[in-house]
Amino acid sequence: MKLNALMDNLGARSNVKRVGRGLGSGMGKTSGRGNKGQKSRSGSRKQATFQGGQMPILRRFPKFGFNNPFAKEYATINLGDIEKFIASGKIDAKQVITMDTLLAAKILNRAMSGLKVLGKGEIKTAVNIIADKWSKSAQAAIEKVGGSIKNK
Length: 152
Fold this sequence. Notes:
The protein is of the alpha/beta class. Helix content is 19%, strand content 14%. The chain has 4 helices and 6 strands, in the order αβαβαβββαβ. The strands form 2 sheets. Strands 1-3-5 form a 3-stranded parallel sheet. A 3-stranded parallel sheet has the order 2-4-6. It is elongated. The N and C termini lie far apart (69 Å).
């Protein structure tokens, strides 16, 4: 194979349309842009949000709200769910339940800022939980069956 014999495949390259090269070319005079106006000038494009000169709707609406970049988002789990997962065998009640064990058991999809235990449902098994936050009803129910809940 010789470098001077290399060629593109047919149709890989197309010739550039040369506009403004006389009336006989079919693309002369106005070069297919029509007559006058903003769109006929070079380098001119209207924005996608342009609304004919009236005040755009995005600028008419008032600005409000705030997104806190430092906000913490907690993964929540109910006592009834913990009991259900223990019964199904996804969680071992003898081990300490943390966010890592819930992630390993695929109960939580992703790691969040922390784990919060809520008191909805009933728990019958004594469990040891390490969480960031919990409700008073959850703490009372866990301690009632002989378990414990601690902070990280």
